[in-house]
Amino acid sequence: MNEHLVLTIALPLLGAFLLPIIMRSSLAMGVWIGPVILGYGCWILANLWLHGNEQPFSIAIGGFAPPLGINLYVDAMALLFAFATQLLGLIFWPFRLDQDTPKRQALMLLLVASSTGLALSGDLFNLYVFYELVAVSTFGLIAASSSSAAYVATIRYLILSGIGSVLTLFGIALIYAQTGTLNLAHLAQLAPDQLNNDLGLAAFLAILIGIGVKAELFPVNTWVPEVYATAASRLSAFLAGLVSKLSMLIILRLLLLIFHQPEATQVILILGILGVISGEFAAWRAKDMRRMLAFSSIGQLGVIFIAVALPDERGVLAVLALSLHHMLIKSGLFMLADHWGGSLERLRGIATTSPLAAGLFVLFALSLVGMPPLPGFWAKFTLITELAGQTDPLYMIGLLVFLLATVIEASYLFRVAAKMYQTKPTDIVRSNSPDSGSLSLTTASLFGAGLIAATVMVSPLGDGLQAIAVQAQDVDLYIQTVLQQPLGEGQ
Amino acid sequence: MIPGFTLELILYSTALGLVSIGLAGLVLSHHLFRIVLALVIAEAGANLMLVLAGYRWDAVAPILTTLGEQPQMVDPVPQAMVLTAIVIGVGIQALAVSILIRIRQRYHTLDRNEVAELMDAEIAATAGTARDVSQEAPLGERPIPPITDDAVQVRGGRS
User: Fold this and answer.
1) What is the ipTM of this complex?
2) In chain A, positions 98-127, which contact chain B (CB-CB < 8 Å)?
3) Taking CB atoms and an 8 Å limit, are A287 and B129 in contact across chains?
4) What part of A 210-239 touches B (C-beta under 8 Å)?
5) What is the set of domains in chain B, with CATH numbers?
6) pLDDT tens digits for B44-90?
7) What pTM did the predictor assign?
C-alpha cells in the first residue's frame, strides 16, 4: 500500500506526457484525465493518512537502498503537503476550453507532479530536479496567458530563477565535494562532523538564496508582483498558496537536518524581517487588488521565515500553522481578486451588489490580521509567544517588526473593507466574464468554509500539528527510517 | 608551469570565475539576450564545479571494461548529475529565447528597462489604475523642477 505513493508523482507525469496526444484524438476523454489522476492521488494520500500507523517510512526508488539510491521520505509533514498539493491542483484545475487547453492542462499536471516530488523527496539532487521542473512548468503556465506583460514577467522570473538554480547547483556541488553524498539522511548523519564549518555555511547560503527565489525570500522576490498581476488568478493562487510553502518546507528540512550553525538561522531571521517590512509597506501603497495581495504575500512569507529561524519544535509548529493558514487565506483572496479584478477604487460600494464576496473578504481579512476566534489568531499567537521566549535581541526585533506589520496589514485590509461597505456605489463592477466570476466566487466560498471549519476544530488541529512538528523535528528518526531499511523493500 | 599553481587550483578558480562573470553579466547587461547568455556562462561554472566535486586525478573513466581487478575510477555520480543539469539548463535557455522572440515581436525592443516600463504600463492599464511614477525617469526635465511663474504668485510673489 505504501508504495502506491509513488503513483502520486508518476501518474501526473505520465498524464502530462500523454494528455496532448490523447486530446488530439478525443477532447471529451482528454478533459477527464487530469482531474481523475489528481483525484486518485488525493485518495491514495488520504488513505495513507487515515490508515497509516503515523510512523514515517521511506520508499527506495528502483529497489536501490539509500544512500546509494534515491528515496522518498514520507512523514506526516510531507504527507500533509503532498495532499495539499494534489487537492489544490484539483481545485485550481485549468479546465477552461480553448485551443491552448491541452498545453495548459499538461503543464498543470507537470506542476502538480513536481510539487508533490518536492514535498516527498529525500535526496538533495532529486529535490533540485523537481525544483527545476516546477520552475519550467510555471514559466509555461504564466506565459500561457499570452499578454505581452505576461511574457515580460515570465522572462524576468526566468532570469531570477536561473540565478537561483545556478546558486543551488553550486551549493550542492560544495556539499558533494565535502561529504560525497546527497542523501538527506546520510547528510544529516555526516553534517555535525563535516558540514558544521564555513564551507557548510557557504553551501547553505547558496541553496537558501537559490530555493528562496520561489519562497519569496527578501532580495530575490522581485518577480512576485509582476507574475501575480499578469498570470491567471488561479495560477497565482496556486503559486502563492502552495509552491512558496513547499520551497519553505525544503529550507526548513535542510535547516533541521543538516545545517545547525547559528549564523544560518540568523541570516534567515534578518532576511525574513526585511521581507516583512518591504512587503507590508509595498502592499500598503498598492492600488490594485492583485498587487496588494502579491506584496502582502511577500510580507506573510517573511513572517514564516521568521518562524523558520526559531529553534525548537514550537518553531516548526508556528511554521506549519502559519503556512497552512496563509495557504487557505491567500488562495481565497486570489479567487476574490479573480471575481472582481482590477483596481481597489472599483470596489467602492461593492457590498450592496455582491454581499457574499464582500463578507468573505472581511472574514479572510480578519483571520489574516489575527482576530481571536479565527485560526489566524492561533497561528500568530504561537509565533508571538515563541519569539518572546527567545533571549537573542534579534528575535525581539523580529517580534517588534511582526507587530508593526500586523498594524500595517490591518490598515490596508480594512481600508479596502471600508470602501466596500460605503453606501453609495459609484460604479457597477463587472467580473471578467459572468461564468468565471461565479466560479471563482464558489471557490472562494470553499476556502471560507474551510476557514470556518478550522475555527471550530482549532484545538484538535493544534494537537495534530504539534504531533507533526515533533515528528518533523526528530533528526534521529529521519536517519533511522531511511538508512536502516533492508534492501529491496520498495518492490 | 608556475609552482604552486596546480591544475586543480586553476580549474576550481575557473569554475568560480565563470560563475562570477555570469553574475556580473546578469547585473550589468541591459539587453535581455545578453542577460540570458550571462546565465549560460554562470551555469557552465556551476556545472564545472559539480564535475570537479567528484573528480579524482589518479583515476580512469568509470566504465567497466574488464572483469575482475578494477583500476581506481572517477566518481560517476557527479557526472550523471552534470548531464541532468546540462539538459535542464539547455531546456530553460531554449524556453528563454523563445519568450524573448515573443517579447521582441510585441514590444519591438529587448532593452531591460524599456521592456520593464512597458510591462508596468500594461499591468496598470489592465488593472485600471494610475501607474506609479517610473523609477527611471525624473519627474520633470530637471531633478528639481523649475519654479513656474504661477507658483511664484501663489507663494506670495518675488520680493
Assistant:
1) 0.81
2) 125
3) yes
4) 226, 229-230
5) 7-57+73-133 (1.10.287.3510)
6) 999 998 888 877 777 777 777 777 777 777 788 888 888 988 999 99
7) 0.87
